[in-house]
TrEMBL record:
Function: Histone-like DNA-binding protein which is capable of wrapping DNA to stabilize it, and thus to prevent its denaturation under extreme environmental conditions.
Record SMART domains: BHL
Organismal lineage: Bacteria, Pseudomonadati, Campylobacterota, Epsilonproteobacteria, Campylobacterales
The protein, known as: DNA-binding protein HU
Source organism per UniProt: Helicobacter pylori UM037
A single cellular component GO annotation: cytosol
GO BP of this protein: chromosome condensation
Length: 94
């Protein structure tokens, strides 16, 4: 599903009067989640899931075909853990 299709889905599910309102709702939600995660906070929507950050350790590796090695730095990455209700809905849909 692309963004335009998702906007249509949100418009119908949320009973918005226009696609613009639905798009604004999506933008507000994503901005709020981005803001919270960038501050190191998590966002938990009971039944749906939890958006959080996790520390990803740096890695050492070797470039294939050469003797060059590299190392990546530790970084914070976003994670999503689905909630029980979302898991059930996905299971029912298959």
């Amino acid at each position: 599903m692309n963004k335009a299709e998702f906007i249509d889905l949100v418009k119908e599910a949320g009973k918005y009067s226009s696609k613009r309102e639905a798009e604004e709702a999506i933008s507000a939600f994503t901005l709020a989640v981005e803001t919270a995660l960038s501050k190191g906070e998590s966002v938990e929507l009971i039944g749906f899931g939890k958006f959080e950050t996790a520390e990803q350790k740096g890695k050492e590796g070797k470039v294939p075909g050469s003797d060059k090695t590299y190392k990546t730095e530790d970084k914070r990455v976003p994670k999503f853990k689905p909630g029980k209700i979302l898991k059930q809905k996905v299971e029912e849909g298959k």
